[in-house]
Protein: HxlR family transcriptional regulator
Amino acid sequence: MKDREKKYLRKTAPTESAKMVETIYGCKWSLTVYQLLADGINRPGEMVRSIEGLTTKVLNQCLRKNTEFGILERISYNEVPPRVEYKVTDFGAKFMKVLDELEKLQDEIENKI
Structure:
């Protein structure tokens, strides 16, 4: 009688999601932008006025990265003057839950030390 051996494939790291997490944490303003959106502040001008030290250029880079990842959605209104707002996508809400869990894990690590 032959022993049945289960063969496992080599497990690899999730490269795309890891790159997303690294990029978002690498941008020091992304987490603050998420907090602003949660508080109902969704227009770039209002975001810049709400955060000391944040420039329009840096905010636009941050918003662009988040939009490219599908975390945020850019909504343009056909008005004069032009109006743009951002909102969290369904995927972005899931991603933010992952970030919240990472933060809890970090707190747990810090409390052990």
